[in-house]
Design goal:
173 residues; 7 helices; two-stranded antiparallel ribbon
Amino acid sequence: MHDREDKQVTAFVRARYGSLLRTAFLLCGDRGKAEDLVQTTLAKTVAAWPRLHQSDGIDHYVQRVLVNTYVTARRRRSWWEQPLGRLVDSQARDEYVGVEQRDVLRRALDGLPARQRAAVVLRFYEDLSEQDTARALGCSVGTVKSLSSRGLQTLRKRWVEPDAAADQEVRYA
């Protein structure tokens, strides 16, 4: 890679890293796994950079690599480290309802199959059109509609609003 290409890659990574990490976190549900996913995605992108730089579709390529790497890893289940034991989590109560709701949504996303989750994240978090989502997933627009619809239906079933008598927090069913 030439010095000029190196500067272009560096500028691209600096501009897109935060967005890629947020998308990867929504896909993985874990910051460490999201960082690994982004690192793998960027490594694949750098390897293909000379070919990509000639086109305007770099962002679409990177999104597709991110989603494909995630879906493949979920299928293999060996890409990410597996803990040997169970750690006890003792989290302090968060006073902010918005933070709790985002956590509930993240956990609900964890329960979706990989392609449904990818379709929901790309459509409603990344705000991609159905056509762009189909291109990122490598499928038809109809498949994107079906995956999104089933994913949203599952999320709605898992999102339970509290009773009036409850302590006014959103709970995950």
